[in-house]
Each structure stands twice: as C-alpha cells, then as structure tokens.
Amino acid sequence: QNSMVLSAAIFITLIGLIIYLHFVKIDQESLLVIGSLGIQVTSSYASGKESTTFIEMGRVKDVVINEAIHMQKVIYYLCILLQDPEDPQGVSEVVPLFQSSKPRLDCLIEVYKSCQEILEQRKTAPQSS
C-alpha cells in the first residue's frame, strides 16, 4: 500500500510539472511593433506552446515605463496604454509587457525609445483615407 501511495504522489507531481511547464513557465517574451499595423506580443512557454496577442495601432495611445513597489523593492515595467474609444484623451486599459522576464531598467529604456520612435513616425506620417 505504501508503494501505491508513492506511485500516486509521483504521478500527481509529474502531472503538476507538465501543467506548470505548459501554462505557467514562460521561457521567452517578444515584442514586435509595426507602425502601420500594430503591436504583437508573444510569450513562448517552456513546453513550446506560444501565446500571441495583437493590438491594433489605432487603439494604442502611448507606451510608457511604469514603476511599482514590490517587496520593498522598486520594479520597472513597460506598459501599453490603450485609448478609450469614448474619450480620446482617456485611457481605457493598461497592458503590462515582459511580466515574466522582468528586464532591467536600461533594457526597458532601449525598448521604450524604439517604440517611441515608431509611434512618433506614425503621428507625423500623413493620414490616408
């Protein structure tokens, strides 16, 4: 009977590990910004599964670096501010990026500058109807 309990515990542990690798453990995160189309955020899990989110550029109000205090430590993260459809000056949603990888501030600044360049090009480009 002890071997049966041990076998069940090992089986449950393996199932838990598989679920963790497939749904929780993010291996890599990427951001693709195309000024004329939008922003694509991709998360690759340890199991090989990929999750992709696309945000149309018309919904993007701005990209900002936000800060938060967590466990007596200041952490920085990149966010996409989505424009409120009813109030063009307002923000309807804040989408945090790179939540699993938690890059250093100097890395976030480089990504932020690149995003701002693309957003500025979009604002200065002539609007076609």
From TrEMBL:
Residues 30-99 form the Phosphatidylinositol N-acetylglucosaminyltransferase subunit H conserved domain. The chain crosses the membrane at residues 6-24. Pfam families: PIG-H. It comes from the Eukaryota. GO terms for biological process: GPI anchor biosynthetic process. One of its GO terms (cellular component) is glycosylphosphatidylinositol-N-acetylglucosaminyltransferase (GPI-GnT) complex. One of its GO terms (molecular function) is transferase activity. Pathway: Glycolipid biosynthesis; glycosylphosphatidylinositol-anchor biosynthesis. This is PIGH acetylglucosaminyltransferase. It comes from Cnemophilus loriae. The lineage of its organism: Eukaryota, Metazoa, Chordata, Craniata, Vertebrata.
